[in-house]
Amino acid sequence: MDPRITNPAGLLPDAVKAVNLLYRAGHSAGVPDTVLELVHLRASQINGCAPCVDAGARAMRKTGETDDRMFTVAVWRETPYFTEPERAALALAEAATRMADTPDAVPDAVWADAAKHFTEEQLAAIVLWIATTNFFNRINVTTRQQAPQTWA
């Protein structure tokens, strides 16, 4: 499958500025990078965004993430590899990504569990990061962006 257009953000320079601001904001609240990478990877898997899944796995590898965790994000509930805060963030990422799948898009129980592990500012950053990931997923899937062909 060929991309429909080249990188849309590259075609619109103001978009790059906005994306950089979102990135900085999402990483400014003290949420561990591993949590942000996990929610990015999980939302990207759900949305079928090949370049984001690829980029997420590469980023996780750079932070020293283990293969056990990288390869089992899609089945995080059935593995022992994730901490309670990470599980809460993953549940929030799934709920916020699958909003159309249920009338109660982000159930109170999911939010309450995340709130047990993260401050209000950290929750804001996680929600922003999930939304930013979904933003990229929708652009990449719509324009059929491809993952790189080789791993460095």
TrEMBL record:
Q: What is the lineage of its organism?
A: Bacteria, Bacillati, Actinomycetota, Actinomycetes, Micromonosporales
> What are the recorded GO MF terms, alphabetically?
peroxiredoxin activity
Tell me which domain of life the UniProt entry assigns to the organism this sequence originates from: Bacteria
> For the Carboxymuconolactone decarboxylase-like domain, which residue ranges apply?
13-95
What is this protein called in UniProt? Alkyl hydroperoxide reductase AhpD
Which InterPro entries has this protein been placed in? AhpD-like, AhpD_core, CMD-like
